[in-house]
Amino acid sequence: MSDSWLSEFAPRLRELETRNLLRRRRVVVPENDAYLQVDGVSLLSFCSNDYLGLANDPILRDAVHAAVEVYGVGAGASPMVSGFSEANRALEIELARAVGLPRALYFYAGYATNASVIPALVGADDDLFSDSLNHACLIDGARLSKARIHRYEHANLAALEALLGASTAHRKLVVSDAVFSMDGDLADIPALLALCQQFDALLMLDDAHGLGVLGPQGRGALAAANLVDDQASDRILYMSTLGKALGVAGAFVAGNDTLIEWLLQTTRSYTYATAAPALLAQALRASLTCVLGPEGDRRREHLQSLIRQLRSGLSHGAHPALDACGWTLMPSTTAIQPLVIGSSTQALFLTQKLRERGFWVPAIRPPTVPQGTDRLRITLSAAHQSSDVERLLNALYELAEEQLSATPR
Fold it and tell me: Of the CATH numbers 3.60.15.10, 1.10.240.10, 3.90.1150.10, 3.20.20.70, which one belongs to the domain with range 19-48+296-406?
């Protein structure tokens, strides 16, 4: 075994640990509000994508309990066999209506959706254009498609325009996150759409972190950009996950009827995987009703107030120790608020020190983010209170002061 390539895994793991890049899972049990029991310790979580605090809402639990009585627990087969329940059908209709597009297709998982939908759209001899900060599932989908991949500098529309203009491919696909998951900034969707119209390309937009939070009634990035109904349906394939602001699981794509029918017929993760259970679809229908209603507006308003509070407390000049340490809050108007620290060692150290003070704030390291931009990824939720944010700010101030006092002058 010592001469086998299989013996290489142990030293490779040790190398990851030496570079502070070894990841460890934590065992989590939800508590009240934004608290989680993590490895047996109660912590105030600032690392969840449950942006509206719906994951443990009694309305969703009640919907699941009622669904179990009707549908049981499992789906039993793929949607193309016998797994397409009445609940799943109703959810697709309601999702399409929510995002202002003609038709939606509901998948069991977000990663599988993007990794599988992209190869159903383009292949060899086609050109695919990808923002350099796109999520890993979009990158993997692009690779699996075997299309020619053109990565453009993050949000650089001039670079994208030049690439599109130089393309001679018959089929062209532009792929972009709507909200970038590690930076929290927004894509310029109207400008992306205009380029796609100019160069006869399809725009695939991943709105995983926008649906439920952005736009009127939380209808997502297209609504926030005033691109709804027929204005966008012929040129955009909209995708979003359902385990973040909606608090459940799964994903969907939406677009014009012909495009969605094509994906239904050709997307491998839809054809060959067991369908999402009906109990999840029913929970999502209850969540969607909440998101689109007055309660959703209340939660979004509260979330926005927390975002303003945190940004004010971490902005340049808010506390001298923060500036002296060189910690930099990235520009973001979303619930994702990255505080760039600069090194894996320091980011991990701060995560541990915050943990000792009762907070769970994850350190994000390469390859998830570029080298030298290691950060604390602070995510806010409507489940937080203003006092929670104030406590986190005070803890960060204390840690910054401690770092300065420990630094040789």
Answer: 3.90.1150.10
